[in-house]
Design goal:
- It is a single chain.
- Helices cover 23% and strands 22% of the residues.
- It is of the alpha+beta class and 108 residues long.
- The strands form three sheets. A three-stranded antiparallel sheet has the order 5-6-7, with no helix packed on it. A two-stranded antiparallel ribbon has the order 1-2. Strands 3-4 form a two-stranded antiparallel ribbon.
- Helix 1 crosses helix 2.
């Protein structure tokens, strides 16, 4: 129940209709559906934690995971990423799965 401009109580047929400033206001039930709530939750996760976290949590239901890259990851000037694994014993580097032989410095 609410009051109108004269102070009298107003009884609406449903709880979805309210009077605000003399005009009727309707609650749209599509804002309350499950996919809308899910989208709002994902948007909040992206805002707070980043897109990698939201995708990681979203894909857990299919038991597939996408982890965020560590902050110490190498980045090129154009922003692309690369996965570099180096074995100092063999002097071999792997860049994006390709084996690259490195020459040892004579000072080592």
């Amino acid at each position: 129940m609410s009051r109108d401009s004269t102070g009298a109580f107003v009884d609406y047929l449903t709880a979805d209709v309210k009077r605000a400033g003399g005009a009727l206001s309707f609650l749209h039930r599509d804002r309350l559906c499950w996919w809308s709530r899910l989208w709002l939750w994902l948007a909040e996760c992206i805002t707070v934690y980043g897109i990698g976290f939201a995708v990681h949590v979203w894909l857990q239901r299919d038991e597939r995971f996408i982890d965020q890259k560590p902050p110490s990851e190498t980045r090129f000037e154009n922003g692309t990423r690369t996965n570099i694994a180096e074995s100092s014993a063999e002097g071999v580097r792997f860049v994006d799965g390709r084996k690259i032989e490195s020459r040892r410095s004579p000072l080592r």
